[in-house]
Amino acid sequence: MKKLLGVLLSCLIIYSIYFDLSVGTLPQTDTKRVEAVAKPEISTNTSIPHFEERVEAGDTLISIVEHRIKKQLPVPISKLIHDFETLNSGQSAEKIQIGKSYAFPDYKK
């Protein structure tokens, strides 16, 4: 009798897990999920020379600028970050996103 009760209890638990994973037990709402995509504003009225570049996977602020000028960074990193944030209306340099275009300071001279 104990074995039969154990088998039935196991079947009930397995069915409960299956039902929860396939159908779900939480009520669904009829609201639609909308993702807001904010395009960073690029300020073009600044006196800082700049170029626009799309961020690829693995890119960093320093690597993009160094690749563009084809030499090491000629300014301190703090100035680079400040210029980037000025050009991109306060966009944090640490939070650049893959696939988006940003204005980067151009230090070719």
Report the major sheet.
2 strands, antiparallel
**Shape assignment:** rod-shaped
Q: Structural class given helices, strands, pairing?
A: mainly alpha
CATH class of the domain at 50-105: Alpha Beta
- Tally of helical runs: 3
Helical fraction equals 25-40%
- The CATH architecture of the domain at 50-105 would be Roll
CATH topology (fold) name of the domain at 50-105:
Membrane-bound Lytic Murein Transglycosylase D, Chain A
- Beta content comes to 5-15%
Enumerate the strands of the largest sheet in spatial order, edge to edge or round the barrel. 1-2
Structural Rg: 27 Å
Query: What is the ordering of alpha helices and beta strands?
Result: HEHHE
Q: Segments where pLDDT lies below 50 for 5+ residues?
A: none
Mean pLDDT reading: 83
Tell me how many strands there are: 2
Distance between the termini: 88 Å
What does this structure look like?
The protein is rod-shaped, with a radius of gyration of 27 Å. The mean pLDDT is 83. It has helices at residues 2-22, 61-69, 77-87, and strands at 50-54, 101-105. It is built from 3 helices and 2 strands, in the order H-E-H-H-E. With 109 residues, it is mainly α. A two-stranded antiparallel ribbon has the order 1-2. The protein has a domain at 50-105: Roll (Membrane-bound Lytic Murein Transglycosylase D, Chain A).
What can be said about this structure in brief?
The chain is mainly alpha-helical and 109 residues long. The chain contains three helices and two strands. It has helices spanning 2-22, 61-69, 77-87, and strands at residues 50-54, 101-105.
